[in-house]
Amino acid sequence: MSLAAIGAGSAHAAVGDDVDDSCMAFSQDAGTTWIAQAALTYDTSIHPIPGEFAKHSSFQVKNTCDTPAKFQVFTGFWSVGGDGTAQLRADIDGKTGTPATITGVSTSPDDAKLLAESGRLVKDKPVAVNLYIGLPAGETAQSFSIDPGWGFFLNEVAPGTDPGTGDGDSGSLGGSLSGGSLGDLFGSGSASGSLGNASKSQFASAPAVVANDR
After folding, report:
1. Which of 40, 129, 140, 149 could bond 203 through an S-S bridge, CB–CB 3.0 to 4.6 Å?
2. Has this prediction a pTM greater than 0.85?
């Protein structure tokens, strides 16, 4: 799905295409150290309970290439044990995302759900991201495992435009997403068809957390 970087510090493809994964850098120590996605850590000690969300991970992310892009958080290739139901949420730059509900096991990139996206990220402009796992208020199943299958992508935007707020350089979560409104895409339906070429390796498989284990 990702396109190989062309030249040093760039990964230009075309507006709407995904930028190479190597253009994403992550930090979990307030920008002191920048790491690859594979090195991110997750809090597996959390035990989500009905009606609440627990923070699974927190980090900053930046676009290290010259190509302006928006950062997107998906869920895909998830796994929820037994008859349990989980909810996932991604907040970007302090803006609360809308939860997506997942059940069973996802085996195709076509299942992917878009949780949140940033505004336009220019090179080396970081934005804060928080990931949450929760349970619906009426959930009665207990002690089932949840692997959320977080997926992180950069999607190219036109120079000088912001996919969300239109302010040119904002890192905040905007009011609309490519292909539909936030209400249309958050927590329902499938992601854009471009993710049909995504591989399972692009969705983080963190150690599963156990729900409502108390």
Report:
1. 149
2. no
